[in-house]
Design a protein that fits this description.
alpha/beta, Ubiquitin-like (UB roll), nine-stranded mixed β-sheet
Length: 280
Amino acid sequence: MLLVQLALLVLALTLPAFKVHIVAVSGTRLVSQGIVMDTAAIPHQSIFTVDADAIRARVRALPWVQDVTVATELPGTVRIAVTERAPAVRVRRASTDIFIADNGATMTATQDSPAVWNTTPVLLDDRAGSAQPIDPGLLSILAITAQRFPAVFGCSVAAYQWGIDDVFNIWTTTGWKLVLGHLDTADALAQVPGQLAALGALRGQLDFTHPTFGYIDVENPAAPAAGGSPGLPAEVTAAKDPLPAASVGATASTSSPQALPHRPRAVPTLAPITVTGTGT
């Protein structure tokens, strides 16, 4: 019996029928299947000697991979199911579009996966100088804000815009923007929840879905102000589409403010709105 078992084991390990001959990858939209297969590095060996845990660890180390499952099927198939990270934001800087995940991973953004492109909020980064990193805390705030805006305020986020003056705005699909101010410090980021709460307190005073104003300034959440006329600027409207082919890869200098379009910050023209309560 022992000899028979040893013989069967040798056959299982050496028969060509039981060698890995199919690697099936599923769940990829941003990461190419080729990169997953190369990273998995599955040798052409017996299906019975495949180390699923080691394969999973290698693939999960990819920046855009959140989780992985690896399973084997007789006679010689390995299945790799990938759960990708969703982009927190698509950043448009000069002549490039970049997806950024909540862990800071980046990749060139294309419309090869329309569902991802259309559901990822865009950030128009017009800050002067070379490309600057985005704080992970801000990425988290942007992702949550985009998800909650429709239910809380009755309109969606059309785009985020970080102006040449370093003022951060949220443009809405109904044509008004929320002015948050400078978000380049940890203290400033810590103020954002309170600013959004102040906006929520205005739901009984302002119509967010049919606005008669163009902006709400909550830099000072205790004294928000509204003014202007509704309407989206051309760059926000165009942000949903890919860049023209002629501009992709073009060289654009960002060493001085003159290299970027000037978008002056709106100045409140209405009296501050009195906030009687907070909460979203």
